[in-house]
Amino acid sequence: MKKKLLTLVLAATLVLGVTGCGSSSAKTTPSSEEKVESTEEVTESAAEESTEQEETGETEAEAVTIKVGANITPHSEILEVAKPILAEQGINLEIVQLEDSITPNTGVIEGSLDANYFQHVPYLDQFNLENGSDLVSIGAIHYEPFGIYAGKTTDLSELPDGALVAVPNNVTNEARALLLLAQEGLLTLKEDAGINATVGDILENPKNIEFKELAPEQLVAALPDVEVAVINGNYAIEGGLHVSQALAVEANDGLAAQTYGNIVATSADKKDDPALKALVEVLQGSEVKEFIEGKYDGAVVPLN
Fold it and tell me: What global pTM score does this model have?
């Protein structure tokens, strides 16, 4: 009797064990039909996504980003106008605002920037000469007339003898300041001085002007301490000055207007980069021109 009972118990255990294994296997292993259906769903999903990308043109391979260093006013403001236009062409414009006149060039040299927009060709040439660099202009965009702004003296005809006059301290912009002072009859320069004029080229200085050389971005702040200051257009705007307030302004048809157009500059190996060429084309286009003429009222003049 005991032997029969033991046999029945063992048989029941064996049946339960086999049934349990079978249940586990059924839960974890998909059938062949399920595998086929799953594969078809993934394939269809991938195909739909690929079709959507082809229709919209939105693929990672087409995304291009360019980083451009620029002074805050007016350069960064002008670039903001270009940004959505470039986005329509698949180009993401990243604007890096910089307040000095050195970092935008060193950034391009070091590779942290693709290009910059803040300077004119004479300044670029002087920078290359002093630093052994090979930065190049890929397009002129606008011109900012230099102005003589009132400090202690509000009329140039009343400029006192020995007047202290603030001017930019870099070679090219100081020459430009001297040319404007000469334009207004406050001094006389050698005939061949041109855009390379220095204080050593002054032939006549009837007012015995003394020059206070300052970084361009410091000129507006210096106005209370000098009789007048000759200030770059962009720094005058940033300092809250308007070209209509200037006691004198560079002639739009003079040597300065022909020479000191603000440019987009980059390294020699990127001068033919398609995205940078597109940037220049947009900056020279009608939408940017209309913005400049409407925004700055003569303080910034489009060149195209």
Answer: 0.71
Torsion sign over Cα 106, 111, 113, 116: positive
Tens of pLDDT, residues 137-166:
999 999 999 999 999 999 999 999 999 999
Lowest mean pLDDT among 5-14, 182-191, 203-212, 253-262: 5-14
Alpha helices in 239-285 (DSSP H): 255-259, 274-283
Identify the CATH assignment for 61-144+260-302 out of 3.40.190.10, 3.30.70.2740, 3.40.309.10, 3.40.50.620.
3.40.190.10
CA atoms within 13 Å, Cβ hemisphere of 172: 18
Q: How many CA atoms lie within 13 A of 201 on its CB side?
A: 19
CA angle 139, 174, 103 (to 5 degrees): 55
Which of 265, 302, 270, 250 shows the shortest CA–CA distance to 126? 265
271 CB burial (10 A radius; 0-12, 13-18, 19+): middle
Q: Say whether pLDDT at 269 is over 50.
A: yes
| Helix, strand and coil in the chain, % to nearest 5 | 55, 20, 25
Contact between 108 and 153 (Cβ < 8 Å):
no
